Amino acid sequence: MSQASVMVLTAFVILHMTGIANHVYANSDNPEACETLPSEIHLIKEEFDELGRLQRTCTSEVGVNKCEGACNSQVQPSVVTPTGFLKECYCCRESFLRERTITLTHCYNPDGVRLVQEGQATMDIKLREPAECKCYKCGDFSR
Fold this sequence. Notes:
Blueprint (H helix, E strand, L loop, with lengths): L2 H24 L8 E14 L5 E15 L5 E4 L7 E4 L1 E15 L1 E3 L14 E15 L6
Antiparallel strand pairs: 1-2, 2-6, 3-4, 5-7
């Protein structure tokens, strides 16, 4: 058997074994675990006048969704790619964003005094958060 034949046969065996390993992993009890999970963040929003002077600062603890989890990725030998390896990387990301209006309930003047008058005591802001998460090929922003 020639050296070229041995190399091709070796590459075939490696790719075949990688395929078997990937098939076993994909069908195991450890599937991809990309989830949409509840989270809490501390929001701070400042409001300035037309001259750039701080008018008020509003804060609140807000419940929001986040994407978290693991996705199957792999690197396998390849006789087709220039590097000799085929890399497939997947990341847990949002598949759909929803827009919400959040009311910040603790507002303060520049001196740190809490504001209580109507129209100043709260501030509404718009926030986009993940509504659904799933595994996407890394670097694929074409959704």
